[in-house]
Amino acid sequence: MRKVSAVVESSGLSHIGPVREDNQDSIHLTDGLQQPGANRLFAVADGMGGYSHGAIASSTAIEKMVECLGPEDARLNPRRFQQGVELANMTVYRKAQQLGVGRMGTTLTAAFISGEDLHLIHIGDCRAYLVREGRAICLTSDHTAVGDLVRAKLIPPEKVRTHAQRSILTRAIGISLFVRPEILRIKLQKHDHLILCSDGLWSVIQDHEFAQAVKDSLSIDQVSQRLVDLALQRATDDNASVVAVHIRELHPQIMGPQEPVKTGWFPGWKKRAK
To answer: 2-254 — its CATH code?
Structure first.
């Protein structure tokens, strides 16, 4: 039986930007080098600027994701990953009612690294980029009105950043009782870089420039700093947030034969996670 363990390093920054009066973005990561067995959850959330208390919504969503997965998980139960989004959605929805502020919501893009597998769960218009062998690929779809136009091939992808309705969301956490996230699973390779970012950052940075930032940086901290600096130089009109992750090593491990699992009378029944 083959098992792979990953050594990763990460960094992240969140900046208020030159226009906004408050920062409604939230990020989650474990800074620095992480050996096998460490928590591998990374996330970026952007509170919806058109609604009240966006900062509360984004921080609450990430808090509930962390709570649902648990702080010491080294391997991922995919169902718990989705349950984290459902818990985040319901908590933000109820918090808005408790605060009496009407609707409030947030986008959320979260990644969990389990061995050589990258699990992504995404709703809204934050983005996840994979930089591999000098090329940046956007892994997520924008859940926006303009994103729908791109998928319908009514406008080309390069028009998204300058479109007047770029920020009109079609999916978000906390604005209704039910949420429909996008879920992806990807095999990682050594020296891959994962970049999660809010729309205040990617809206002023072209896809190929994410790969260039990785190429020009000597450390993972420099990757995050370069991208935020670039967004500020180009006068982004929103908060700018990024989490950058580097897959430094992937170590194959040969496992011995496993003991047979006794299923008892009801092999289809599984104990619910608390």
So the answer is: 3.60.40.10
